[in-house]
Amino acid sequence: MHGSLLLVEFGAVLLGLGLLGALAIRFQISPIPLYLLAGLAFGQGGLLPLGATEEFIATGAEIGVILLLFTLGLEYTAPELVGTLRTSAFGGLVDLVLNAAPGVLVALLLGWGPVAALVLGGVTYVTSSGIAAKVLSDLDWIGNRETPVVLSLLVMEDLAMALYLPILTAVLAGTGLIGGSVALAVAAGTVAVVLFVALRFGRAVEAFVDSPSQEVLLLKVLGLTVLVAGIAQSLQVSAAVGAFLVGIALSGPLAHNARELLSPCATCSPRSSSSSSACRPTRPTCHP
Q1: What is the rounded CA–CA span in Å between residue 231 and residue 209?
Q2: Which end of the chain is more exposed for a tag (fewer CB within 10 A), N or C?
Q3: In this predicted structure, what is the pLDDT of residue 285?
Q4: pLDDT in the model for residue 269
Q5: How many of the other CB atoms lie within 10 Å of CB of 40?
Q6: Are 239 and 230 in contact (CB under 8 A)?
Q7: What confidence tens digit (pLDDT) does each residue in 32-74 have?
Q8: Hey, CA dihedral for 287, 281, 67, 74, is it positive or negative?
Q9: Is the pLDDT of residue 272 over 60?
Q10: Widest pairwise Cα distance in the chain
């Protein structure tokens, strides 16, 4: 009974998202807001809970976001990424100040203290890489001249979060300076290692992944991307950053073949991600 219910709920979710996507195309808007509203309407606490498929959809959607960022990484090479990050350093600093400052100021003005200010500043600063990348794709802005700058800011935000989250965890857990420093060093080292491999050993990664069989190529690319993303996330680094850097490591005909194989999955799954993220609102458990 549970298996049939899962299929019914999952099929209804996919069909509903397809209808919402068609409606968005009709009015020439991004479907992301409609997906979020659908998640609020039919998720936990909504009109109709989806208990049988919630965990399944959430896992599939997370993999979809990873694949979406991987396919975006295929659009650029490692030297292009490094050059863009260098030229966008000032923009990243401005992005940090303008987006984190409102959260910090609100927390301080409400008298919640510095810890709450640190938390709320991170909330207002970070941007969902998956949603932003999906909007760029939906509006056909991937080829625009400003898109590399936007993507570099997203990557810089994710890299900043890789440093921010260990600090926040240490502060909230009260582990002290040593514990926070160790977590921060692990996160920074993970990012450095993945970026170094993408820059220096991209050819070796391509030789390992490449295969004349599309089936084998799909399994290798999918496995490597999800594996690196999972390792990155387990080490307090954004899974999106790990997947993006794997895409950066691939180039040429291999990148084209990988893009052709994974684009349908990367396009479909973030639709479930948007609705799934709204399906599971979390009530605040910490108080000032």
Answers
A1: 18
A2: N
A3: 44
A4: 55
A5: 17
A6: yes
A7: 888 888 877 776 666 777 666 677 777 777 887 788 778 877 8
A8: negative
A9: no
A10: 62
pLDDT tens digits, residue range 80-138?
777 777 887 888 899 999 999 999 999 999 999 998 999 999 999 988 776 787 778 77
Residues 6+ apart with CB under 8 A from 82: 199
**Chain Cα centroid distance, residue 24:** 23
221 contact partners, CB below 8 Å, separation of at least 6: 70, 209, 250, 258, 261, 262
Helix 252-279 × helix 202-209 angle, to 10°:
80
For the record, the structure tokens of 138 come out as 């939906």
CA torsion, ordered 97, 101, 104, 109, to nearest 10 deg: 150
Tokens of 113: 């203290």
Place of tokens 């409606």: 23
> Where do the domains of the chain lie, and which CATH numbers do they carry?
2-51+62-279 (1.20.1530.20)
Sequence letter at residue 279: C
Which residue pairs from 25-34 have beta carbons closer than 8 angstroms and sit at least 24 positions apart in sequence? Answer: 30/134, 30/135, 30/138, 30/139, 31/138, 31/271, 32/131, 32/134, 32/135, 32/138, 32/274
CB atoms within 10 A of CB 114: 11
74 contacts 142 by C-beta, under 8 angstroms: no
